[in-house]
Give the backbone structure.
Amino acid sequence: MPVVWLGSRGMIMGGRMGQNLNLSNGAAFSVFKVNVTQPVKTNYHLPDILSEIGPVKPCDAVNYFRPRQFYLTMRHMQWTINGRVFQMEEVADNEIVQLGTTEIWEFNNTGGDMMNMPHPIHLHGKQFRVIERSGVAHEGYVDEGWKDTVLLMPGERIRILVDFDDYPGMFLYHYHNLEHP
């Protein structure tokens, strides 16, 4: 079955190309159908609770009073984070974290006219929790639960809580915009 996604104005793209569903905002719709053709011989039972996500605890961060800052800017016609262009294997002194710690990272998309675009911030190999978002009315965002990517709108600042408890190597962080190098 082809991938199906909901495009603008309730148009199904993929399996039923161009079929107009005339959906109202928030209306339920079927994405795909599963046909079971054989019984499964197993004794597996689903647990009553599939997962439990505990409360966010920013006070556990080693930098609770001084979050690590990341400013999205443009310099010499190149997008930068903290004034640095993307370098695959270079690590700045202010990018080194201690294994076994939890940190608050703050991303700022408040750099004026040049930053008038959304930036999806992505951390490779790490999941994080959103603990604060400010600067833009963020109605409709779903910041609950574990993330590896978060959308940062123009004029917005977001704080995330990241655990560095399981891997002593390098982690890549960047934004997912095609026009960025």
